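Q: What would this chain look like folded?
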Amino acid sequence: MCVDVVFVNSMEFIVEKGVPQIGQLILSNILSEKYTVEWLNFDGLNYYGKLKYEESYSESIEKYAEFILAKNPRIVGFYTICSSFISAVRLANAIKKRQSGVKIVFGGPHATILAKECLEELPFVDAVILGESEKTIELIVERLINNEALKGLQGVAYRNERKVIVAEYKELVKNDELSKYTVYDYSPYQIQQGDLVMIEAGRGCPYACTFCSTSTFWGRKFRIKPAQDIIEEMCKFNALYGVTRFSMLHDLFTANKQYVKDFCKMYLDKKLNFTWDCSSRIDVLDEETIDLLAEAKCTGLFIGLETGSPRMQKLINKNLDIEKALKLIKYLVDKKFNLTIAFIYGYPEETQEDFVLTVNLMERLRKMGVNEIQLGTYIPLPNTLEVTKVKDSLYFEEEDINFSIYKKYVFDDVTKTLINNYSELFVQYYSFESTIRVKYRYFDLFHAMFFAVSKIFFCCSNFILNKYTYIELYEKYLDKIETHIKKSRKGLKEASFFLEESCQFFSCNIFQEELRRGNEFFEVAYSIEKVFYKYCMSKTTECETYRMAVDYIHMRKYNEIIRKEVQIVFDKELGHPRIMQMGCEKK
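A: My prediction, written as structure tokens:
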């Protein structure tokens, strides 16, 4: 049997269920009317035990190539993003070496931005499908399957007599066209009742932050689905699978206040009981909009603040007013939104003063009660304004790769040779020296560790931060942090592995030092939170009830000890450990 097209999802080599990439689902659905199509997610296959990772990365690549070729494909298409582009290159090359007649096609953001470079440097890649391809995919596939030249087609990059042709397709999918591409059947992936389902709410961002590649990929062409269509999709997913949680896949769902108002009103008129989240800029929100979002059961927002420095806000073209942002964030916290607020440090022009302002803002947000604060080192991304500032000083050193895209498993000798030989294709793995990047080399990972630990050792972490700032704590334990990080940088990581490693580090170092000082509050908090830690690391998914002689909820809220017998219920609802209210019946 021959499969016409096999789509390969981004390969992250982490232990997860492997939710399909929406773009590939859309293209598979379009092509399936005329061709046999399959999509593969190797992380998902590993998770379900159907195709396990091998001991070495090279062995996994060879195994995957054989798995794909066993389907006798005519075309293999790879979805590419910066974090997994190296795996797409390795696997595509392995396939082509075994079966030269198979057409290799790259698509997705990374390959689109670097289409010319891909075809110049990677002879095993036959074509790059550019940007959105709903309107071009059928013609491109037809030509490739029939071994016909791609000359004259738009939306594709290809070679013509050794010259690379990048033929962009200027007409993007319009607002009212987006809905006709919605896919409800994710087979072979099975949507479960408790899943969070992604709804493609639109595409593009109208802003032009200098560090971001989104505007390059989408051309700053902002589009959003009609509100009625999104609500109908939510209802249909609910009817098909019983799901009640949704996430709006859009860089800036809240860009237009009137649209948000119309969407929320329509949602409320239908008396729906779904929860949902979305991404937003803080400066497009106001209290009225926030109230409406809360009423319409929007429970979470992802907001990129990027920096706490007014100077850097201007330099990266984000242009947020920090104090105004803080007032709105406080309002969001009071309205019980689950907030994820993201920062970046290590920009080319960032100074010590800029960095301190960012970290101080992170501390203020933590004390304010923000659920999740993310911090990442600036990653050079292709064709962005920021990368042009450092292009002549970039270097590749494995220890300096941003931890969010680094997996030791992937970085064998072959990978490192490819990165060294093709710097333009793999610029995301390169770094440059600056005062901040050298002095605070591990600060992003230290922050991630601390924030993970604080979700379990809540009172202990607060106690520590009442004594030290983030920067003081980092500098005080830098030697131990550096040693720990160098030992524990691993691939194939589960979230529980990172959490366990982080908790052990803090317990053995920072917490032990405080315990030796004999502070009663810290001792009591640590004894309770150790129990919570053991529960979180256990395999159980059931709630567990514990009798305690101290009102732990009161401790968390007021940082003081009230001695009375209470019951605390620990819960892992939705995969996240949380502490329920007291007074539940003991099981």
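Residues 305 and 343 are 6 Å apart (CA to CA).
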